[in-house]
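Entry:
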Amino acid sequence: MSYEKIREHHAQTVNELLEHLAAADELKSEKHARFLDACNLLIAESQQGVPLQYLKHCARVTDWGRIHLTPTEMAARKGPHPYYGRGSEIAYIDDYSFTEKALLIGCRSAVSTFDGKFFMVVPEGKYSVSEMFHIVKPTDEDFDYVRFALEARDAARYIKGPNEARVIELSDLYNVLIPWPNKEVRDAYAWAFTYCKSEGLKEAKNLIGSLWNANARLIENIRTPEEALAENAEPAHDLEAEIALDGSSCNEEDRGALAVAERLIEILAPNDDVEFCDVVAATSDLADPNAPTIATHLICFPAPNQGEWTQSRVNEEDPRWVLGTPPRNKANFAWIQQTIACMSEDAVALLLLCNAPLHSELGREKANRIALAQSGLLEAVVSLPGGIFDDERPASSFLILRKGRPVDAPTLLIDASNEGELLNLKENGLTTRVLPAAAIERIADTYRTWANGNEYCNVEGFCAEVSREEIAERDHLLSPWAYA
């Protein structure tokens, strides 16, 4: 759907709600006066343009604390505490992980309702959660607002995989857009939604939800937390606490991939006025041959190891495929080339990808990797340790792409995969780690020193500057640990 169609749809939803409020006889009584006032406030805000924020800025979004129990284990652990499993199935076990209010968003199997909205459960008391749910924790004062804002959002664009194995990745849930106006309007929306449910005003509730969903599609209204604060649409979360590695807020000493990204972004764009284009957020359909935007500074943090990304055969004539046609069943090189297509002639881009594209020996992925190594676009690779991601993705790496470099320019490879400190060993055998501030600064300082052309020497076991010829000698492997 074109953006003009999205605008037209938004205007239509405003009109439909206005017409319903004017025509519905059941709303004429004095009893509903406050409800009508709330609706008029929502309509007025919508006509002015409701600020949008990513869910990760409005609530704590995590997979921390989930546990996996087999049917046999559940049968052996019968107890008083609910265990939320597949869809609406609830077992009762002898242990619990959570006591605070949260929203459980279905991420495996049951991922949407019959009308295409997010499948959501609101647990109570002490409970545990299976890997079938992601966990969203709004603040107490905005709990109902976030709940009802998500209840109005279409889930389709965030769902991946075939019908029998549909999933919503945590990294995609982070980037669900929800309207985030000032507190008065948020409270009015939550109150109106609750009122409709209590009074049986089903049509009015559906129209209010449709209006809020239409607002969320007007991506020109996206605001950073800082912009929202300046506009009196205060953010619910500090950006620094966006990803917590130990189930609580991050602190200055122990942080993870987000902190590394922020430090690299500061180096890539030291001017605070520079805005980074989010390639994933701007791309509504990765199979669309048209680049969604052109920018000088870009980030691309797609879902880890995304599988099939198009329902049809990949068009080999697509002008985006400058590195060669990517495989249909693995999206990593499709995202790399989508990013390149969005780069202006002097642009720089920061990507976060699982490590497979750095060393894959399979068909088109290998051909794409060789082309990337030979292109001169790859300025640096920073490999991170596993266990520092909330979504439990495997070990991943930052790739820095820059246009305008000589084809034979060297590439900096930083192997930080052994950095970090063990935090926990989870029941499923996965470890969780943190990157201390010193490790983050070492990564940032190494890249800055090298990028500024200062005196630089290789550090055994940590970093290496490698030439195009050296990479070719190693069959175009791009994994830093193969060189450092």
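The radius of gyration is 24 Å.
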